Automatic annotation (TrEMBL):
This is Tyrosine decarboxylase. GO terms for molecular function: carboxy-lyase activity; pyridoxal phosphate binding. The keyword Lyase applies. Belongs to the group II decarboxylase family. It comes from Oryza meridionalis. The lineage of its organism: Eukaryota, Viridiplantae, Streptophyta, Embryophyta, Tracheophyta. Its cofactor is pyridoxal 5'-phosphate. One of its GO terms (cellular component) is cytoplasm. The modification N6-(pyridoxal phosphate)lysine is found at residue 334.
Length: 526
């Protein structure tokens, strides 16, 4: 049999139209692109590769020692013009030999540098299932089950986190699943902007002011610029070590009053629960009280620490005052085993989102039967295209549903508690060595620490050197740093699904050994 063509249709050279009568379309090749037997065979190759990867994770250094361009120089400059023999198996071998050695291994049990990108069997297979089914649930009609499953699981998760009922569909609010917190913040900000401008006039967009702390993730000011807020109207309020780097309600109140007195319009406050550098927790309730006289929208960015709300003993540090917020977002892919990407956002007033982000011109997207049923007193239809930026959406709800079904709320609690316990053990090791100090209070599973220096002027440089040597250790841990209030510190974030107590102990041993070596060299020099 002659080889099938490398395309699925022919075109007429005169006008580019598909040739119907002159050149029959060959469908054999197209059918093979989703052949069931091929899918099973190649799928096993992928599953085996992933399973082997996790089983052999300890063989990889957490962070590769490569230089920019290393991969581009190993791969061809041009794509294959034709299908290679047994191309999929060959590509999988390249993944093993070329791709994996050049990755930073976020699932490594020795990865302590960043907040986790947690993985689980249910999360990974949920991703595969959603990719295989491959629906596009931009409206209810486009995939009714996908839309309604999303509505169910965001309420499930909201209840597991003990969010106020007013943020759930069950209480008149509602939620959606997005890719990242960056999207959630932008959606909330645009909704707040349009609501405010509807009241004061669109011509006053240049008077809008937004507020955060100097510890707030840079995604907030970036979102503000995208939303049309002037750069100089993004107020980053200073924080201080005495307040554990939390946003001061008094400082926020004073800043908003100054702006209002100057004829500007306070619009939006981004409170953070678990800042990136030190996991500082802003006092949400007091910030809501400060924002209320100005009618400012309050959003809580709990990307990392929101997951801790599954644990009753940790909820108090996170949830205080959250009943008064306008919106709340957290990343289930960070600590709740949902695999990238899975950010969940809840809003108290979904109509504000729809008013800002909704569209009603695309008649082809509408479903007359659903609209008629809603008009006749049936349940209202949620079209998630009107709740976010994108029209094309992934079926992320399927993955989150599998995680909740397979592990249950209690299983998620055990997962979070294990990491908090290991972080507490690491904190204890730091405190037991008089050469070190814990710089900021440990609330969750992040420990911020540093080596004490006999010379305060060189303390930051000493700790930079310590981090470099820790990360350079063969088969050692991978950590990161923060610089808050002029104080340079090391960050040890426990969160990998594969991390065990022995990995934490081994990490501390490396830190101690490198500190001993550095201090010994300093004594020789002095």
């Amino acid at each position: 049999m002659a080889p099938a063509p490398s395309h699925c249709h022919a075109t007429n050279g005169n006008n580019g139209a598909i040739a119907a009568a002159d050149t029959p379309v060959k469908t054999q090749h197209c059918a093979r692109l989703l052949d069931a037997d091929e899918f099973r065979r190649q799928g096993r190759l992928v599953v085996d590769l992933i399973a082997d990867y996790y089983a052999g994770m300890g063989e990889y250094p957490v962070h590769p020692t490569v230089s920019p361009g290393f991969l581009r120089h190993r791969l061809p400059a041009e794509p294959p013009s034709r299908r290679e023999p047994d191309a999929f198996a060959a590509a999988m071998q390249d993944v093993r030999d070329v791709i994996l050695p050049g990755l930073t291994h976020w699932q490594s049990p020795r990865h302590f540098a960043h907040f986790p990108a947690s993985s689980s069997t249910a999360g990974a297979l949920g991703e595969a299932l959603a990719a295989g089914i491959n629906v596009v649930p931009f409206t209810w009609a486009a995939s009714p089950a996908a839309t309604e499953l999303e509505m169910v699981v965001v309420d499930w998760l909201g209840k597991a986190l003990h969010l106020p009922e007013r943020l759930l569909f069950a209480g008149g609010g509602g939620g959606s699943i997005l890719g990242t917190t960056c999207e959630a913040i932008l959606c909330a900000l645009v909704a707040a902007r349009d609501r405010k401008l509807a009241a004061i006039g669109e011509g006053r967009i240049g008077d809008l002011v937004v507020y955060c702390s100097d510890q707030t993730h840079f995604a907030f000011c970036k979102a503000a610029r995208i939303a049309g807020i002037r750069r100089e109207h993004c107020r980053e309020i200073p924080t201080y070590r005495d307040d554990a780097f939390a946003l001061s309600p008094a400082a926020l109140r004073a800043a908003m009053r100054r702006d209002a007195d100057a004829g500007l319009v306070p619009l939006f406050v981004c409170a953070t629960v678990g800042t990136t550098q030190t996991t500082a927790v802003d006092p949400v309730g007091e910030l809501c009280a400060a924002a209320a006289p100005h009618g400012a929208w309050v959003h809580v960015d709990a990307a990392y620490a929101g997951s801790a709300m599954v644990c009753p003993e940790l909820r108090g540090a996170v949830a205080d005052g959250v009943e008064a917020v306008d919106s709340f977002s957290m990343n289930a892919h960070k600590w709740l085993l949902a695999n990238n990407d899975c950010c969940v956002m809840w809003v108290r007033t979904p109509s504000a989102l729809v008013a800002a982000l909704g569209t009603d011109q695309e008649y082809i997207l509408k479903d007359a039967a659903a609209e008629t049923a809603a008009a006749d007193g049936g349940e209202g239809v949620v079209d998630y295209k009107d709740w976010g930026i994108t029209l094309t959406r992934r079926f992320r709800a399927l993955k989150l549903w599998l995680v909740l079904r397979c592990y249950g709320v209690e299983g998620l609690r055990e997962h979070v508690r294990s990491h908090v316990g290991m972080a507490a053990a690491f904190e204890g090791m730091v405190r037991a060595d008089a050469r070190f100090e814990v710089v900021t209070p440990r609330r969750f599973a992040l420990v911020c620490f540093r080596l004490r220096s006999p010379n305060k002027k060189t303390a930051n440089e000493l700790n930079r050197r310590l981090l470099e040597e820790v990360n350079a250790a063969s088969s050692g841990p991978y950590m990161s740093s923060a610089n808050v209030g002029g104080v340079y510190m090391l960050r040890c974030a426990v969160g990998s699904t594969l991390t065990e107590e022995r990995h934490v102990r081994e990490a501390w041993n490396v830190v101690q050994d490198r500190a001993t070596s550095i201090l010994s060299k300093m004594e020789i020099i002095m």
